[in-house]
Amino acid sequence: MKRTTIWIWAAVALLVLPFQACKKAEVETGSLSVQLSAGVSGTPAAGSYTLNVGDTVSYSYALEPGFSKLTVLLNEQQVAASGTVTISGSHFLKAYSDDNLEYKLTVQMTEGVTGSPAAGTYYYKAGTVVPYAYAMAEGYKGFNVKLNGSDVAASGSVTLNQDSVLYVGAAVKQDVRGSWILSEAYGDGSSFTVTVTFSGTLFSGTVSDSEGGVGTYDYSDDSLDFTLVFPDVTYKYSDGEFTDTDTMSGKCQRYQAESSAVSGTWTAVRVTSGAAGTQSGGSKGRGGSR
Fold first, then answer.
1. Mean pLDDT score of the chain
2. Which of 70, 96, 245, 264 lies in disulfide reach of 186, CB 3.0 to 4.6 Å?
3. 178-270 domain in CATH 1.10.1760.20?
């Protein structure tokens, strides 16, 4: 029995050792980015370096003649003019004279936005105040401006005391204008299908339906709201959202007095070229009393 046990342990060891050897072969890497201003010399030189995690890198910097006050930052924390960096991930080493410290401003812009500064990468001396102003073009929605990931006003200024990213974005706005087949279903079991036509701008205008209802629409934010008014009944449509360019849906209410509103849902499909709109009203007509 003892000899058998010894052979089993030997076999297990042979299986485990190659596995451990493979694990040791997997080397994790990190990076060191070095930025030097004018008037500073030393090692390592400016650039980006890929190193193994656990490696130790020595650095040493000094001012050249004619420059004053050397500052060295490691991961934005001030450190001695010489020392070591142990690689554990991504590291940033910056050495500068007071008169030459620069920070980077990256401006990112999507389609549908205008303003300045334009998209690109800019370098400014520390403490520089950079004004900015942006606006959204017609036909877009979801306008937003972010500085280093946080929402900011559409116009303002950036004080460069660190590398910064200014993002300006918008999304293409769907066009509601034209004719649609509108289908409605209410909680009392009634339903209607009519043709509605939107006329105006991308953001607002008038709407009419094939049974004589008229009203207005608003699409100034990310949802469509509109009303259709008859002599003795009003239809109110809200929270309209596009599922694709030619389909949208939302909530609706029908009432003679808002205190007696009947709620429901609606869907609309765009009437494309060559397609005929069809409609059918309730038993007393869409605009009649209920």
1. 85
2. 264
3. no
